[in-house]
Structure formats: C-alpha cells, structure tokens
Design a protein that fits this description.
Helices cover 29% and strands 37% of the residues. It is α/β, with parallel strands linked by helices. It has a three-stranded mixed beta sheet, with helices on one face. α1 (27-44) packs across α2 (71-83).
Length: 185
C-alpha cells in the first residue's frame, strides 16, 4: 500500500516525534526514522538539536507499518522539511537507508511499483540492481513408460523488467543524493 508521509520541523529540543494515529509501528520502522533524521542532518549540514521533527503517516489502508523499506522516503521527506521544499508528487521511492546515505535493497518491488502507478506516480525510484526481478517459473514435463507416468519439474529463470511489466518509469538509484535530483531537492 502507499501512504502519505508528512514531516514537520519546528523549533524545539531535538525530539523526534511520530504520530502513527492508531497504527502499529515495528521497531525497524522506528530505527529507519532515526536513521533518516541522521542522514538528512548530514546531507543538509543542518544541526537539528534545536528542532523537533514530527513524522505522521496518513491516508494508509493498513493497521501495521513494518519494515525498513521506507527509509529512503523518510530521509527525502526530512530533507525537504529542513530545506522548506515540497517533494514532487509524481515520483515515489522505495529502499532502505544506510548510515552512509546509500539506498539498500527491499523486497516486493513489483507490488510496490504497481501501487505507485495506481496512485499516479510516473517515476518510481528503486535501489540499484532492483529494476529487474528474477523469477523461477516451474515447468513440468511428463513421460509415460508402461503403466506409469513420470513427471519432472524444472525451474526456468525469467527476468522481469519492472518498469515495462507495470508501465511506469523505474529508475535505479544508489544513494540519497542521487534520489534527491528526481524529487527536485
């Protein structure tokens, strides 16, 4: 599912606040938020110790938010809040965020690309190397020998281009600075 993430920056004591509005947040998501704040602080050169940052997840059709897949999106939203900018609405991203600002791999790229397209995204940013997905498709071949039928299942490799498969522009990005360009930050 897609969600609407809002990040608000106000003068304060360096607090990181999360408004989850009846959602269950897993620990890895909380860690992604903390890491996103740290990376955004490094990228922008802004000391956030005198600001409170509030993250809110809205318009979500889910009861649980889990996994680090939104790390890159959290980081970009934080950078936009720090710089007082708005992110482009027709670009979406998935990917973990690493302490050095690199974007790490995630699962479910095809489903995420489809969800992004369904809500109007024209460009979907994915971690480097994840613009294609490899599937192994079972193929059964049977041979009848006398009264018995012997079947063998082999798995054939199928490489799926995510963008062509879903009909959305998929771009692989390696780090947060590269991703910023697509959001016009």
């Amino acid at each position: 599912v897609t969600t609407l993430l809002k990040v608000d920056l106000k003068p304060g004591n360096g607090k990181t606040l999360v408004d989850i509005n009846q959602l269950l947040f897993w620990v890895d998501t909380q860690q992604s938020i903390q890491l996103a704040k740290k990376v955004a602080e490094e990228v922008t050169g802004k000391d956030l110790s005198k600001f409170d940052i509030s993250y809110s997840i809205e318009d979500v059709n889910a009861s649980i938010i889990g996994g680090p897949s939104a790390g890159a999106a959290l980081t970009l939203a934080t950078i936009a809040a720090i710089e007082g900018k708005t992110l482009k609405k027709d670009v979406m991203i998935t990917g973990t965020i690493n302490p050095d600002g690199s974007i790490g791999p995630v699962g479910g790229i095809l489903a995420k690309a489809k969800a992004a397209k369904e809500v109007g995204a024209r460009t979907f940013l994915v971690p480097k190397g994840q613009g294609t997905q490899v599937n192994y498709v079972p193929k059964e071949s049977c041979e009848k020998i006398g009264y018995f039928t012997f079947c063998k299942i082999t798995y054939e490799k199928e490489v799926v281009n995510v963008g062509k498969s879903i009909g959305i522009n998929v771009v692989e990005v390696s780090d947060i600075k590269e991703a910023m360009k697509y959001f016009e930050l």
